[in-house]
Amino acid sequence: MPKIVFNRADGSQQIVEARPGASIMDTATRSGVPGIVAECGGAMACATCHVYVADDYLPLVGEVGEFEDEMLDDAAAERTANSRLSCQIRMTDELDGIEVTVAPEQ
Amino acid sequence: MSERVPARAGVLVAGAGEAGVRVATTLRELGYDRPIVLCGDEPHQPYQRPPLSKAFLDGKAVRADLALRTPEFFRDAGIEVRPGQRVTDVEVDDSGSGTATCEGGDTVEFDRLVLATGARPRPLPVDGGGLDGVCVLRGVDDAERLRDRLATAGRVVIVGGGYIGLEVAALASARGLATTVVEREDRLLSRVSAAPLSEFLAERHREWGVEFELAADVRELVGDGHRVHDVRLADGRLLPADLVLVGIGAVPETTLAEKLGLDVRRGIVVDAGCRTSHPGVWAVGDCTVRAHPHLPGELIGVESVQNANDQARAAAAALAGAEPPRPPVPWFWSDQRDLKLQIAGISSGYDRHVVRGTSPGADLTVLYYRGGELIAAESVNRPADFLAVKRALGKGKTIAPEPAADPATPLKELITDRA
Questions:
Q1: Total count of domains within chain B
Q2: Tens-place pLDDT, residues B214-233
Q3: Distance between CA atoms of residues B44 and B57, nearest Å
Q4: Cα Dmax for chain A
Q5: Chain A residues contacting B, CB < 8 Å?
Q6: Which of B111, B214, B356, B362 is the most exposed place for a label (fewest CB within 10 A)?
Q7: Rounded to a whole number, what is the distance in Å from the CA of B98 to chain A's nearest CA?
Q8: What is the complex's ipTM, to 2 decimals?
Q9: Which candidate from A31, A41, A43 shows the least CB-CB separation from B70?
Q10: Does B106 lie in the same domain as B27?
Q11: Which member of A30, A39, A43 has the closest CB to residue B73?
């Protein structure tokens, strides 16, 4: 199963195996990764699963959608070129090892 | 066979839905280290409900997608989940400690009790409710039945123009099913939203082919003794139906609270910290009611994931002896085809509203004011508006109404201190 490396707000790392097809947000919440609040469960309604995708993986995760784009503009933590809502990234074998940093505020 | 020696829990949570699970996980995040037992009614691992009327009903998500946490998470966190072991009886002493009996006969002794017993579908008080083809939507088993029925249905009548009803109407009409919504009030969402949003949604649903019977009462569900085939309205008209969904709200589950002699007025009455009338018993989520933020003397129940989570965090903080969390901003969402609704705050009691949007039928934000201050907003396909209002309310700030009417001005630029 593809792995996700979460850089947590406290500086530590947590590595979680993902079911292919599950989103990064799903994988994080089910395994209790701190800082991924994800209150809407992936409906793109809350902007509380904000992560920064590591540069190497950025070209692999697809484009930011129009609605996601607006949500990210107003997310609680600063938006950067690496910002994504983790509910919008579905895990594939190609993404094995993807590193994401959990936004400090959600 | 489970052992009959009573388990001993620091905290027993009766109910394993969103609220119950969040109490347990928050306790662990706050460093609480005593045993936690979570007893659920349904014979399933804890799962998310919002997708039941959306992706799950549409066949785009399966049961595995609904899990709130993995079994490994609960094991590693030392949270004992007991599915299918509804708490059927409970005794509590003055300090809050006591003994619970679960379905199946097991008992759990506890130091503190949290009621997270949820709500059950409000029954339609007419004849014919037991006919085949009459459905409700609350749990995953309900959703699976409804999903299977939708696959073969031709004419769907939905009783109740609330969120569940509208989400199902959006889906049924998209499949080309003849879909009628019967609503008792003269507008949709009357219990939870204000009129401008009701009108916007009614208009869009009509374009999708959904028919509405507003200000209409159902007199009976008519069948051939086995299957439903019509819905009879109070004026005598018959609406043909091979599938009837009853979505007329939920009734808080208060049986245990009543047994304990707690203050129950429709729901279990709690304060901002989710304390019940017993100082050692807490209650969270859909089973609770509390003071209305704008209407003195009224109690409200807020049935949402956000409320379940925030009440759970407040109760867990009290149980763990931690600082209470910041007062939350109520918020809610709904998906209906290409419409994403996002609601922040509670609009009831408003005395002024401001509408903004770029094109009729495509997007809309309604801001609600009381005494000159912003109290809520309802948005359709305007996520930036929603997030700005949610942030303003969370910081105790407001948004000036006049400039807010211009949809080109970002609301986040208009956030100011209250007068």
A1: 3
A2: 999 999 999 998 999 999 99
A3: 18
A4: 33
A5: 19, 22, 26, 29-32, 34, 39-41, 43-47, 67, 70-71, 73-76
A6: B362
A7: 30
A8: 0.91
A9: A31
A10: yes
A11: A30
